[in-house]
């Protein structure tokens, strides 16, 4: 009983609403309320509603509003009174006609056929051709036999397109394949009828919308057709640019289609086709790099082809505009393959592209980590076989941008098997690591300093003052923390390879004896003049006067009374701008030895050393000339005597330190 | 200047076989001994080094000339006939679909009276 009341109340409410909208002339509002009512309750408003409905259908048909008419078709199907109540038979038929088309265009075939029923009789009676075509169209659900439609279409008067009322020719898209059996026909037809870019995008859309099995088949055939297009374009010989489109589709087909075996050979061939004729082995243009990298990435998806792709890519060099694309390729290949050659090539490319970047990206550092744990020897092989400039570039870049622990492991792994030349190169990595540690240390100190700054002006002033000082202090700073740990770990191995390491060893030595021991090790590895001079200069910088004197003594001892050796030492010291306090003893030793061995040996180096000695005020002293006599001499005398030829008269070397009079 | 194609210098078809490269090098060396043909020997040496450096053989194989005419010919042989057949079928289907579309477009815009008049017997 209560339910009955509720329904009655609801019906009254809808009826009220329908009346309200009817008074306002609002067909939409009225119909939505009216059609909810049971048919007997609609009677009150149906006549006036039907008038409004027919008017609306006429207007919407005139405007070609097929979507709205589709809704009206649903309403007329539900309540035929909307079409027929109060209308003449002709008026009712004229209203059904557009509703049939609206339902058909919406592919609502059942409804279209129902709405066509009232029209069938008159159509068959007055226009059988129309009736036949309509029956064919509706019963075949939009795909009638051409012989049913064509005669009817021909029956229509041709319309002059110039009048602007001829509807444009309909372009019909090919239907996508719905099953495996349909794939070949659909895709071949698409390829045959559409331009390649349309084929590529439509095939991709089909594959994305299809079930997995059909999608795989679509990708496989699309890939093969892309390869065909690539061969045809390459055969035309119009350069690399036209190859990008088919290469891209082929690569997508391999990737999206699950790297089908059927596409393996065409992909490798395509890779060779796009790579052939490059100014090998350097790729610098983006239009060359793009298809090459795209196909290489796709080819590497095949496990059987991957090693070859990795090797081939490692043998190429990318530069300039091609670098960003190449880095993408390297990253993807390194994620699949651990290969020292590829990793080194990738790192060098990254360095070239990012010369100022402080940290290497994760994928390169992870690649190094993987190589260290699985193929450390291949890293050494690469370093051993690389051209020196590339080797140094890689060492510098890795040491500057990778995590210190990783660099340490890398140097460790390569050190044992490395030859002397490679060890020297690797020691550069330690120099850089120590520098990084110092820089970090310096930055920490600067940060602590700046924490106390009150305002921006203070900060600017302080930065100006501090910047220069930090630069100076930086180089003489003692290592702490990580830097010290790195130094202690590598010092025994690297000490003899660079004078910087001698400096470090002396700076961190706990006693003079330890410092001297390190110096001797260095000098034994560098027994030549350059080694001694560098060691001397290092002690000068570190203000280790005693050690410097010991180095000097050791240097001269080794060349005692050997005019040629001393001449070479003097010339080398002069060339390397050795401070006078170390140069003069060498010159003095040389002049003494020369005085003992007159006549002087004829060698250019002896003449150069003599000239240098002369420049520094050293002269050959006559044998027997007493110190006393010399003490009485003056500068003027010295000048006048120096003009005289010493000739065959026996002489002795005299140093400027002995007194001005000595020369 | 484009460097010479190393396989061609050694008189070898592009290959991934290092032994074939080695054999071809020594065979070519006997034709261009350094004491008789220094220039020829240097060309051989350059080509051999390019092929034997790490990754060099794979890169050379990758960048070696490919007979694209042959590939194009094979692709035509395989696909042209099926493509032509599919095109014929698809064109017929397209014509049919276009005819229907034209029919729908023209008739649906007519009024009932116009349609009856247009198709009156």
UniProtKB/TrEMBL annotation, chain A:
Bias (Basic residues): 614-646
Taxonomic path: Bacteria, Pseudomonadati, Myxococcota, Myxococcia, Myxococcales
Entry protein name: Uncharacterized protein
Compositionally biased intervals (Low complexity): 647-656
Superkingdom assignment: Bacteria
Stored InterPro entries: DUF6109
Region of interest (Disordered), ranges: 614-663
From TrEMBL, chain B:
Ranges for domain J: 5-80
InterPro entries recorded: DnaJ_domain, J_dom_sf
Domain of life: Bacteria
Protein name, UniProt field: J domain-containing protein
Naturally occurring in which organism (per UniProt): Archangium violaceum Cb vi76
């Amino acid at each position: 009983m209560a339910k009955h009341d509720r329904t009655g109340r609801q019906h009254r409410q809808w009826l009220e609403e329908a009346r309200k909208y009817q008074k306002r002339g609002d067909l939409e509002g009225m119909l939505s309320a009216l059609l909810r009512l049971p048919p007997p309750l609609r009677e009150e408003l149906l006549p006036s509603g039907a008038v409004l409905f027919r008017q609306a259908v006429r207007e919407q048909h005139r405007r070609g509003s097929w979507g709205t008419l589709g809704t009206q078709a649903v309403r007329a199907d539900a309540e035929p009174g909307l079409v027929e109540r109060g209308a003449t038979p002709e008026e009712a038929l004229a209203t059904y006609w557009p509703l049939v088309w609206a339902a058909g265009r919406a592919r609502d075939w059942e409804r279209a056929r129902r709405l066509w029923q009232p029209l069938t009789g008159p159509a068959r009676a007055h226009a059988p051709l129309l009736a036949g075509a309509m029956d064919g169209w509706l019963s075949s659900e939009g795909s009638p036999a051409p012989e049913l439609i064509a005669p009817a279409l021909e029956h229509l008067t041709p319309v002059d397109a110039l009048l602007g009322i001829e509807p444009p020719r309909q372009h019909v898209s090919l239907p996508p394949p719905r099953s495996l059996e349909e794939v070949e026909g659909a895709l071949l037809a698409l390829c045959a009828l559409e331009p390649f870019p349309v084929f590529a995008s439509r095939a991709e859309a089909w594959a994305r919308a299809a079930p997995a099995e059909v999608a795989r088949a679509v990708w496989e055939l699309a890939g093969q057709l892309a390869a065909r297009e690539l061969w045809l374009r390459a055969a035309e010989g119009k350069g690399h640019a036209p190859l990008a489109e088919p290469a891209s589709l082929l690569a997508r087909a391999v990737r999206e289609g699950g790297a089908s075996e059927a596409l393996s050979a065409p992909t490798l061939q395509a890779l060779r086709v796009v790579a052939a004729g490059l100014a090998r082995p350097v790729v610098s243009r983006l239009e060359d790099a793009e298809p090459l990298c795209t196909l290489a990435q796709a080819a590497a998806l095949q496990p059987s082809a991957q090693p070859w792709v990795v090797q081939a890519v490692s043998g190429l060099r990318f530069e300039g505009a091609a670098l960003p694309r190449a880095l993408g390729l390297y990253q993807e290949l390194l994620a699949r393959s651990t290969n020292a050659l590829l990793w080194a090539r990738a790192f060098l490319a990254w360095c070239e592209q990012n010369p100022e970047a402080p940290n290497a990206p994760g994928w390169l550092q992870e690649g190094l980590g993987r190589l260290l744990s699985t193929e450390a020897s291949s890293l050494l092989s690469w370093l051993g076989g690389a051209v020196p400039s590339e080797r140094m570039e890689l060492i510098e870049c890795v040491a500057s941008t990778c995590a210190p622990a990783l660099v340490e492991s890398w140097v460790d792994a390569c050190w044992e098997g490395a030859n002397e030349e490679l060890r020297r190169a690797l020691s550069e990595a330690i120099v850089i690591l120590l520098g990084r540690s110092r820089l970090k240390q310096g930055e920490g100190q600067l940060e602590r300093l700046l924490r106390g700054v009150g305002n921006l002006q203070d900060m600017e002033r302080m930065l100006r003052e501090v910047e220069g000082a930090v630069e100076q202090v930086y180089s003489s700073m003692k290592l702490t923390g990580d830097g010290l740990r790195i130094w202690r770990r590598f010092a025994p191995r690297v000490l003899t390879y660079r004078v910087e390491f001698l400096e470090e060893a002396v700076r961190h030595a706990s006693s003079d004896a330890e410092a001297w021991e390190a110096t001797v090790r260095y000098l034994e590895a560098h027994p030549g003049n350059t080694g001694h001079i560098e060691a001397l200069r290092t002690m000068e910088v570190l203000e280790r006067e005693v050690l410097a004197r010991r180095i000097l003594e050791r240097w001269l001892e080794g060349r005692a009374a050997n005019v040629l050796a001393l001449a070479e030492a003097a010339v080398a010291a002069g060339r390397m701008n050795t401070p006078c306090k170390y140069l003069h003893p060498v010159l003095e030793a040389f002049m003494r030895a020369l005085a003992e061995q007159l006549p002087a040996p004829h060698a250019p180096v002896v003449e150069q050393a003599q000239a240098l000695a002369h420049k520094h005020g050293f002269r050959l002293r006559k044998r027997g000339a007493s110190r006393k006599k010399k003490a009485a001499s003056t500068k003027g005398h010295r000048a006048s005597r120096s003009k005289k030829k010493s000739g065959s008269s026996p002489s002795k070397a005299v140093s400027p330190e002995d007194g001005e009079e000595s020369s | 200047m484009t460097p010479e194609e190393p396989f061609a210098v050694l008189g070898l078809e592009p290959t991934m076989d290092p032994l074939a490269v080695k054999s071809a090098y020594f065979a070519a060396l006997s034709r261009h001994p350094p004491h008789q043909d220094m220039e020829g020997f240097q060309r051989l040496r350059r080509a051999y080094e390019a092929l034997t450096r790490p990754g060099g053989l794979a890169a050379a194989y990758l960048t070696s000339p490919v007979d694209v005419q042959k590939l194009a010919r094979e692709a035509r042989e395989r696909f042209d006939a099926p493509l032509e057949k599919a095109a014929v079928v698809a064109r017929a289907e397209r014509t049919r679909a276009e005819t229907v579309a034209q029919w729908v477009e023209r008739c649906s815009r007519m009024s009932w009276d116009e349609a009856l008049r247009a198709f009156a017997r």
